[in-house]
Design a protein that fits this description.
Layout lengths: L1 H38 L14 H6 L1 H31 L9 H33 L6 H5 L2 H31 L1
Helix pairs in contact: 1-3, 3-4, 4-6
Length: 178
């Protein structure tokens, strides 16, 4: 059983690294594409996500900057979330899983997931108003949708962080009594 657990953790660690690198590349591409669009307005599509904001930029710079900022922040927060997951894999000790750092990292993951969910909700609402007033924004729904899942995920991870915090307290009490 020990080897299965270690194997699963190694595979999850590798997948987390791959996801983290992919999200960093995606965030960098978005940032580059949006900044470059001010220099060369003809090239305004993100090849990674299909986020086409050419019509949005024609509508107004304020709409373009608001939507673009929200999308970049959400993408960066997703990369940060996976960075925290990688830190957990680096710090986890299967012999003593209830270390002082685990509840802190889990709480940070919970806060990051909640922030992603909240900003995704704000972006979705804002884009819904733009869509209702003017036109559909291609590729934006896929990038901002899913806020329910992130908020639910944040709640579950927060509860797990509280359980780990209690585990650390019990473990330290046992060490003091022995």
């Amino acid at each position: 059983m020990k080897t299965n657990t270690e194997l699963v953790l190694k595979v999850m660690n590798i997948l987390s690294w791959i996801t983290f690198i992919g999200l960093c590349i995606s965030t960098g591409t978005l940032l580059y594409s949006i900044v470059f669009s001010f220099i060369n307005p003809e090239v305004m599509i993100d090849p990674v996500n299909g986020f086409d904001v050419f019509a949005l930029k024609k509508l107004g710079t304020t709409y373009f900057v608001n939507v673009s900022s929200l999308v970049i922040i959400i993408s960066a927060l997703k990369a940060y979330l996976f960075y925290l997951v990688i830190k957990i894999f680096m710090k986890i000790n299967l012999k003593h899983p209830f270390s002082e750092i685990m509840p802190v990292l889990l709480a940070k993951i919970s806060y990051a997931a909640f922030s992603i969910g909240l900003l995704s909700y704000i972006a979705t609402s804002y884009c819904f108003r733009i869509t209702k007033r003017f036109f559909e924004i291609n590729g934006l729904k896929e990038m901002t949708d899913g806020f329910h899942e992130f908020i639910f995920f944040a709640g579950i991870i927060f509860i797990i962080s509280l359980i780990f915090k209690r585990g650390v307290e019990i473990q330290s009490e046992q060490e003091l009594t022995i």
